[in-house]
Design goal:
Layout (H helix, E strand, L loop, with lengths): L2 H24 L8 H14 L2 H6 L5 H31 L6 H29 L3 E8 L8 E6 L10 H12 L5 E5 L7 H10 L9 E4 L2 H5 L2 H10 L3 E2 L3 E5 L6 E5 L4 H5 L6 H4 L9 E4 L17 E4 L10 H8 L5 E4 L5 E4 L16 E8 L1
Parallel strand pairs: 1-12, 2-3, 3-4, 4-5, 7-8, 8-9, 9-11
Antiparallel strand pairs: 2-12, 6-7, 10-11
């Protein structure tokens, strides 16, 4: 999708949400001075139109970027609550109540829904300020000794995800004393020139066997080749349809990585599982890094792949978006037994995309104990 088409789709999507919030909620409630809600809604929509410029040309200060990015999440969450309000309101009209009780119930619903919009948005902003540590034990067949693996994913460097954010992230990871650190795509979400100072902080990551990375779909949007080369220059190993052995001979595991599925649309840097698994040690377990969980469905067979680590979904990031994500991806978050051969773990994202908001899906650093 070209930038022009993206912007048109973006305007239509948020324009439609704005229109429906006005019709389904604001026009429907029986509160005084609701004209102020209408004005606030139009201001939010106007500000949201400026966000794409701030996202792809992050030259504005963080406080301004924060204000420009918020309306996207606020409109989305308000839209969801507006629909619920309309459904409940419709049900109220079917109840056999006298007019006094009906008016009381209706006023309570209107005030409650308005308060819920405010509380939900404030909670979502607060949630995005914290990164949770998810600790998972995963048993692998033929693993001779335990290993500690830290997975990061979907950091989305750019805008509010800046050098200071990455610096603090590195400190949190280093405390875990990992054997290996993996980053499963969407690390960079802006032009490389704006991301370098933040990327440089990743050179401080410490682990026994180093840091490994596979590209996500967002790297393709900003120049996948220079991003790969720059990561290599700070000693982050990029797995480009290839594998490496982690640990002492016959005591470790194969770590393989593929390009993202977006490579098929990009017609370059396409994922190739056969190339990625070529030469793996068959008596040791194999871990595959693939950005999107649905890559598992593109494989004719998963035999020989013990565990696939992915991201991409953000766990939905803002409820109820997780239900929409589930329509495209087989797994949204957490650990899953795909079949008798293969398990899949999906990281909910270490950063966030778009608004600095999360609801129903926390940001995470994953500590995976391979046993």
């Amino acid at each position: 999708m070209t930038p022009t088409l993206f912007f048109i789709a973006y305007v239509l999507a948020f324009g439609l949400q704005t229109y429906l919030i006005k019709r389904l909620f604001i026009d429907d409630i029986k509160l005084k001075n609701k004209r102020y809600l209408s004005r606030s809604l139009y201001i939010l929509f106007a500000i949201s139109l400026l966000y794409p410029l701030a996202r792809y040309f992050p030259l504005v200060p963080n406080w301004l970027y924060f204000l420009l990015s918020l309306p996207i999440g606020v409109l989305f969450l308000t839209f969801g609550i507006a629909i619920v309000h309309k459904l409940v309101s419709f049900g109220c009209k079917r109840l056999k109540l006298n007019q006094k009780r009906r008016d009381f119930f209706r006023k309570t619903l209107d005030i409650g829904s308005t308060s819920l919009i405010l509380a939900t948005n404030l909670k979502a902003v607060d949630n995005a300020r914290h990164i949770e540590l998810e600790v998972v034990d995963i048993e692998l067949k033929n693993l001779k000794k335990p290993y500690k693996l830290v997975q990061l994913s979907d950091v989305h460097i750019g805008g509010l995800i800046d050098r200071e954010f990455i610096k603090n992230l590195v400190k949190k990871v280093n405390v875990l004393s990992a054997d290996v650190v993996v980053i499963t795509g969407d690390l960079v979400d802006t032009k490389l020139e704006f991301a370098k100072s933040a990327i440089d902080e990743l050179s401080g990551l410490k682990s026994t066997y180093g840091t490994y990375f596979v590209v996500g779909n967002h790297e393709y949007f900003h120049g996948v080749s220079p991003i790969i080369e720059y990561l290599k220059s700070i000693d982050i190993r990029v797995l480009e349809n290839e594998n490496i052995y982690i640990g002492a001979d016959a005591e470790g595991f194969n770590l393989a990585g593929v390009y993202d599925l977006f490579g098929f649309r990009y017609a370059k840097f396409e994922p190739d599982i056969n190339k990625a698994l070529k030469g793996v040690k068959v008596n040791s377990p194999t871990l595959l890094l693939a950005h999107q969980p649905k890559y598992i469905n593109f494989l004719h067979s998963t035999e020989g792949i013990d565990l696939m680590l992915s991201g991409h979904t953000h766990g939905g990031q803002l409820w109820p978006f997780n239900f929409l994500v589930a329509l495209e991806q087989p797994y949204v978050k957490g650990l899953h037994k795909h079949n008798e051969h293969t398990q899949v773990y999906v990281n909910k994202g270490t950063g966030f995309w778009g608004p600095p908001m999360r609801l129903g899906a926390s940001s995470e650093i994953t500590l995976i104990n391979l046993i």
